[in-house]
């Protein structure tokens, strides 16, 4: 056994030894396999099973219901797969968040055991879903996944229901939902990244969307925008 092999063997056997302070020299390869298989077993714990299945359910429910509502409101001929709201950037962000989850549950499994944090995330996912779906149902045909750049007859300014409290409940709900998914997974890096990326996306989208709303509805929209907050932090 080389010096390095002996060192690794001691380190690993120390971390597994049930007798504190006892240094057992064991075959380092066998120890490494034991070490990795113990870590892998952690991935299959109750914690991971529950957090990951909640995440998959949240994703399936969010995208499935977006598509179904679009079908019901706009009719099959006006809806395509874009209504699933799954872009390449979105897929990449989700893959990175799953990657963070797996790396952390292997290296720092105790991070995922903060159940009050995870449950708070789950509550945010549910609240975000409710706000967004209320927005879609309230706005009806006025709520299109692509921003309208020309006025159509049936496009009416919506200022009732949840739009009485915030101008962009659909975006507000999505922001809460997206950040909630990462808090639910106890993913610190993705929580910050999702909050920033989603917020920045809406910070650019809202002025663009409102430029057309002002053109379509003029002083009526001006007055509404003065009265009601956007619903997205730091965007008036
Ligand atoms: C993806 S929806 C988002 C709606 C809104 N920004 C929200 O977050 O609930 C975008 C479409 O909704 C329309 N829209 C946004 N606010 C509206 C309102 N108060 N009344 C009618 N249409 C609106 C825009 O013209 C755009 O075509």
UniProtKB/TrEMBL annotation:
One of its GO terms (cellular component) is endoplasmic reticulum membrane. The chain crosses the membrane at residues 56-77, 89-108, 120-140, 174-199. Divalent metal cations. Probably Zn(2+). It comes from Ziziphus jujuba. Keywords: Endoplasmic reticulum, Membrane, Methyltransferase, S-adenosyl-L-methionine, Transferase, Transmembrane, Transmembrane helix. Gene3D superfamilies: 1.20.120.1630. It holds the Pfam family ICMT. Its EC number is 2.1.1.100. It comes from the Eukaryota. It catalyses: [protein]-C-terminal S-[(2E,6E)-farnesyl]-L-cysteine + S-adenosyl-L-methionine = [protein]-C-terminal S-[(2E,6E)-farnesyl]-L-cysteine methyl ester + S-adenosyl-L-homocysteine. Its cofactor is Zn(2+). This is Protein-S-isoprenylcysteine O-methyltransferase. It is a multi-pass membrane protein. GO terms for biological process: methylation. It is found in: Endoplasmic reticulum membrane; Membrane. Belongs to the class VI-like SAM-binding methyltransferase superfamily. Isoprenylcysteine carboxyl methyltransferase family. The keyword DNA repair does not apply.
